[in-house]
Amino acid sequence: VQLQESGGGLVQAGGSPRLPCAASGINLSINFMGWYRQPPGKQHELVAAISRSGNTNYLDSEKNRFTISRDNAKNTVYLQMNSLKPKDTAVYYCAAPDFNHWGQGTQVTVSS
After folding, report:
1. What b/e string do you get for 15-36 counting C-beta neighbours within 10 Å, with b at 16 or more?
2. How many CB atoms lie within 10 A of CB 63?
């Protein structure tokens, strides 16, 4: 199983990057998938999740700025982030937590 995040980098405050997570060895359409982030010096937190039925859930503080989606044909999950702020600086990971499968993460750094 491999989960590969991309789309990170240096982003100006107010930017709206989209992070893809491409999967191999696991069918994302039938698994609960989540996007997590780990800010510097802090623990991981779940920011968005999508169930096999397509229901989505968000960290309360981000539900108006982040959107998780899934493309079953591409076996890819996305995190659309809008109006980024410096506090969003973190390593962002996608995961299939039920099976403890994690990607290596992609660094997002938001400059003010």
Report:
1. bebebbbbbeebebbebbbbbb
2. 13
- The Cα–Cα gap between 29 and 5 comes to 17
- Give the CA distances from residue 47 to residues 24, 25, 70, 94, in Å, rounded to whole numbers and listed in that order: 23, 24, 15, 10
| Residue 12: CB atoms within 10 Å | 9
Q: What pLDDT, in 10s, does the model give residues 49-103?
A: 999 999 999 999 999 999 999 999 999 999 999 999 999 999 999 999 988 999 9
- Give the separation between CA 106 and CA 7, rounded to whole angstroms: 7
With contact defined as beta carbons under 8 Å apart, do 53 and 30 qualify?
A: no
